[in-house]
Each structure stands twice: as structure tokens, then as C-alpha cells.
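Hi P.,

Sorry for the delay on this. The queue was packed all week, but I finally got your sequence through. Input first:
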Amino acid sequence: MKALIFAAGRGERLKPLTDHTPKPLVNIKQKPLIQYHIEALMRAGVTEFIINASWLHQQIIEFINALTKKHRFRQINVQFSIEPNAPLETGGGLLKALPMLGKEAFIVVNADVFTDFDFNQLKQPLDDAVAHLVMVTNPSHNPEGDFSLKDGVLKQKSPNQKTYTYAGIGLYTPRILSPPFSSDTFSLTPHIKAAVDKQLITAHLHESQWHDVGTTERLNALNRR
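Then the structure:
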């Protein structure tokens, strides 16, 4: 199984740190965020990685190339999907990376989350679903949540149902993207919502550690813990 790590974001809310350091290389306890994901995916047996990168992408390439020269990382193979001019957002980034990902299901993880999620949980077959998403309890910065969850199937949120937040982690198939595409740059969210309407996305709740490292305040709070 392959894994796509979304690592192209500019990290506007982490400025001025991200003026000179790409967000995936921001440190939590002296280790870059992206390395935590690579190690966790390796523990689940993943050895094929695709990393999309844009802002300061050369730093990411150099870091990964140096990492894979270390003995414990020599078993992995990493390909880069470079978005040289500007990030293509999640949908455009996924579309550009699809030729590297192939036709089988693949794991997706946002580089800017910090979690103890066990990626072995994403090895179950999807059957007819186009994706299986990991949800978390709504954090303070997203109190209304993204979706509801009933009997393992993702639902659009409604006032009378409990909601959850998408963790930025999932198992996807290429069928999540439905052409035509009006631009190279687009969000994956409308495609997810369209699949939810057709009851084609399953999900489960991760109730352990998860943090969106989206602001300087959240980054500093994690490093103080």
C-alpha cells in the first residue's frame, strides 16, 4: 500500500516561522512533523511514499533524501509531486499525484497534524466505498465539526446529530475525484461531500491524541507539553 503525504501548504498562520521553514519540517520535540508520519506509516508496513510539496519544496526534498540515507529508513521509496508555482490545494494535489499512486487504495495524511494514530487501522478493504476517513472529537478551533457519523457511514452534519472533525487522515481510492475539473487548483472537500451524499464514504472515530498544528499558539503548546 502507498501513502500520500500532503505537504504543500504555505503555513500562513505559522508565520514568521514558515517564512524560512516549510510547515512539514516544523519541529515537535526536536523532530519534524513529516518524520513522525513517515515513522508511523512504516510501523504499519508502508514503504512507498508520495509527498506533494510546493512552498520551499527543495528543503523538504533535501530533508527526505538525507533521512532515507539513514539505515532504518533505507527500506522506503519516496517520490515527490512538486507544485512549483503555488500549492494546487488538496484536490489538485491529489489529481497531480494520482499517476504515482496507481489504481489501488492508498493512505492520505496531512503533514500538519500531530497524532498517535495507528495506520494499521486503514488496512481493511473498502468494498464499494470510495474512501474511509478518520474523524476526531471537535477541537476548539472547529466546534461545529465537519460531518456526522452513523453506523460507520459518514453523513452531512445536521442540527440534531453529533458532529465530528475530519482528522486529515484517510484511506482513499482514485474514485474520490470525479471529472471534469474546471481548474488544476481545487479543494478535495466538495468531492468528499458529493460522495457523502451518495453514502460512499465510511469512517471511524479516533479518540486518542490528535492535534492540528495550524497556528504558532498550538505549536508552542505542543512543545511545552
